[in-house]
Design a protein that fits this description.
13% strand, 23 helices, alpha/beta, three-stranded antiparallel beta sheet
Length: 489
């Protein structure tokens, strides 16, 4: 029921308008059912969960459950919780001045009950928007029961000249103040066990206990918890009775395909308008960027239990465009296209987002990042060019023989980080066999994408030990693998 929140200012007017109280879980349920009937998208901007997490979340809401979203970092757990706000009614009436959002039709605080007793239908009410009905708390070791539930306030007792036996001396914590709202506790296992125990009664019976006061406050809260699976055994754990009181536990996951991962990255990346307008990003470059994350999630150097956040691809994309932008400014180009060599600029985004196992620490974060980029190139290579088998006969001919011979007979060539677009393209065009391989195996490739593909071909041959690549201060040098030793250079 939609009510005119501007005109209705008193309890009497609210009654006359036909307002009926509804719990937040019923409110979420009813609005979700309406959206499902109208085939409206509920959780906009969350990709890859259409057939897994979102149906489970909707079933939990329809069941009026408190929810625990269990998954590794960067899996949109908090975003899902925040989007639940859109399932609330746009405006909600409360008793004016109430600390705990008292329902005018069903008041429960001493303040609200005394005010209604005194003024009756003239009791003033105010309205709060659904955006104000979302509360969030990150669980950290320093969180106390007083923070979440409440405590006795000696200053209030002194100012109001009240005895400590009077319940008006209580200062309510975050949870009572989130009455009739969505309350999210992130990283639940990090809460100390005694704090988790304090949540038992609130989740089950609805009453709270503060410093000897037992208040029968039937709090109406939609709880959403988030947790990381590794925390169950490492930093903390969820006590069993608390888990028992959480209705639905939903497992989240990382994007299952490159296409979904690209949607997420493009949506979340914060780009300057000038970068979007003046830097061309080949679709292949986006594929390679996302493939790095997929490689990291299965790498022997990376702690799989810790996870590889989707934020790695997002920040890497931002760094990639900034690298191309800086290069274009230095070379005097007004417009440019992303190059594979620009991927060296995303290394800080990788090293800052992955947790290494012992072997990775021994090799070093920089080495691991470069290895992940090389592995990503290696994985994408067979999608565009004939696969290179690990074991081949020496006399067996391959599609790459002419290109390898070109490097063997020559001195190789350098691709400098600050080459202008004209110089960069000219250097790649001078390699005849490289151009021929593109024409043969990718004849329909767009011209603006062909140069990135040429670079991918070179990097792929390096990854398969057909050519060598040397990084020096100003850029990369590509040469044959053994010729330099044969010629004694």
């Amino acid at each position: 029921m939609k009510l005119d929140h501007i005109k209705i200012k008193t309890l009497g007017e609210l009654k006359n308008a036909g307002y009926e109280s509804k719990s937040i879980k019923d409110e979420l349920r009813d609005n979700l059912l309406e959206k499902i009937r109208n085939k409206e998208e509920v959780f906009k901007g969350v990709w890859g969960y259409e057939n897994s997490v979102i149906p489970e979340l909707e079933r939990a809401i329809l069941s009026r459950h408190n929810i625990n979203l269990l998954g590794l970092r960067g899996q949109a757990k908090t975003r899902l919780a925040r989007l639940m706000v859109q399932l609330l009614d746009e405006w909600m009436p409360i008793v004016a001045g109430s600390e705990i959002h008292d329902d005018p039709m069903c008041p429960m605080s001493r303040y609200a009950m005394e005010l209604i007793k005194e003024k009756g239908d003239d009791t003033p009410i105010t309205w709060i928007h659904r955006d104000e009905r979302f509360f969030e708390k990150l669980a950290t070791p320093d969180v106390t029961v007083a923070d979440l539930i409440g405590d006795v306030d000696p200053i209030k007792a002194a100012n109001l000249k009240l005895s400590y036996a009077d319940d008006r001396v209580i200062h309510f914590g975050m949870i009572p103040r989130a009455n009739r709202c969505i309350f999210v506790i992130n990283e639940l296992p990090d809460l100390q066990a005694r704090i988790q125990v304090a949540l038992f009664n609130i989740l089950q019976e609805g009453d709270i206990q503060i410093r000897g006061f037992k208040l029968r406050l039937p709090l109406d809260i939609q709880f959403v918890f988030t947790a990381n699976p590794e925390d169950y055994t490492n930093r903390g754990s969820i006590v069993t009775p608390l888990k028992d009181r959480i209705g639905s536990q939903i497992l989240t996951h990382y994007p299952e395909s490159i296409d979904i991962a690209k949607k997420i990255t493009k949506q979340e990346a914060r780009l300057d308008k000038r970068q979007s307008e003046h830097i061309y990003v080949p679709e292949l470059a986006m594929d390679l960027l996302e493939q790095i994350s997929f490689e990291a999630r299965k790498s022997e150097y990376v702690d799989v239990k810790s996870g590889v956040s989707a934020r790695m691809s997002i920040t890497a994309f931002e760094n990639l465009l900034s690298t191309a932008e800086r290069r274009a400014i230095l070379s005097g180009d007004s417009e440019t296209s992303v190059r594979l060599s620009d991927f060296m600029g995303v290394i800080p985004s990788i090293t800052g987002k992955i947790e290494l196992v012992y072997e990775g620490e021994q090799e070093g974060a920089g080495f691991v990042a470069e290895t992940l980029i090389e592995d990503a190139v290696k994985s994408l290579f067979p999608k565009f060019f004939p696969k290179i088998e690990k074991l081949q006969r020496k006399e067996e001919e391959t599609d790459y023989d002419e290109l390898v011979l070109w490097f063997f007979e020559g001195e190789g060539f350098d691709l400098l980080d600050d080459d202008s677009d004209a110089d960069y393209k000219s250097k790649l065009d001078t390699v005849g066999p490289l151009n021929q391989l593109i024409k043969t195996h990718q004849p329909d490739i767009a011209k603006e994408d062909s140069y990135f593909l040429k670079e991918l071909l070179l990097w792929g041959l390096v990854a398969h030990k057909k050519l060598s690549k040397h990084r020096f201060v100003q850029g990369f040098q590509f040469k044959d693998l053994y010729g330099s030793y044969i010629r004694g250079l």
